[in-house]
Amino acid sequence: MNDHQIIGQAIVFIENHLYEMITARDAAEAVSYSYYHFHRYFSAVMGETIGSYIRGRRLTQAAWELTHSKKKIIDIGLSLYFESAESFTRAFKDRYAMTPTEYRKRGIDILIGNRQSAQMPDQSIVTHAGLHPEITVIPAVTIMGIRFHTTVSGNESVAAWQQFNTKVPAELLANKRYGVYEAGSTCSSDDFHTDSESSAFAGVEIPDNYPVPKDMKIKKLCGGTYAKFTHKGTVDTLIRTYHYIWGVWFPKSGFELAGRDDFECYTERFTGPDDENSEIDIYFPVNV
């Protein structure tokens, strides 16, 4: 399937199950994607998370019910899996700037189209149009570091790297460093959203039999085939590269994502987070 077919199939699944207890993970399974990869792909293409999209569609469906049915307001909210009358009213007011009761009394029918155009920001497309990966096979790598939890909306990785960098032994300072988004991690709620936590790992490559300090952990990065992208620029613009990879390159590439960790690799070409000439290698696991 191409990118529009994948997203379209997920949306059809959501539309057909608005009145059922579905999660972002269910939508991923409906299009035969791993949840880990699909929630990132969906966000890049649609501009919002799967969980946010589902909640938004339930609210527009609730608005339709309010103006086209005589159901009790609380029954409408509960049937669309809002936990209580209070949570339904709060979510509805955040979206429509009025309570469900006010909306029904006014007889307003202002259903807001929630399907955002599956287009990437122009700046990402223009900036990264010439970005092509190297398909490479790498051996397994052992790294030593710290595991931490991060969110989409937060910036926990900066603090984690600052903490880790103070602990790197002098003899390892010249080694490659890795930022890993762990494929096996789970979020703190069923629906992934911008405050959902996932597991990440900041580490440095170590040789075999290296003595590991008690405050450090060991992680093995699987060898195999990867699509290797190189981001050039400041860390602040890294998100544009990810948007391009997920929203433009992958859907057209013909490659299937493998169920391994993807990661960033920092070599001597990484000259600082604010240097426009700094480079970060990004590895995505693919099946061939």
UniProtKB/TrEMBL annotation:
Segments forming a coiled coil: none
Keyword set includes DNA-binding: yes
Residue stretches making up the HTH araC/xylS-type domain: 8-106
Stored SUPFAM superfamilies: Homeodomain-like, Probable bacterial effector-binding domain
Keyword list, A-Z: DNA-binding, Transcription, Transcription regulation
A Pfam family this chain is assigned to: GyrI-like
Classification via InterPro entries: AraC_E-bd (IPR010499), GyrI-like (IPR029442), Homeodomain-like_sf (IPR009057), HTH_AraC (IPR018060), MarA-like (IPR050959), Reg_factor_effector_dom_sf (IPR011256)
Name this protein carries in UniProt: Helix-turn-helix domain-containing protein
Organism from which the protein derives: Blautia producta
Taxonomy of the source species: Bacteria, Bacillati, Bacillota, Clostridia, Lachnospirales
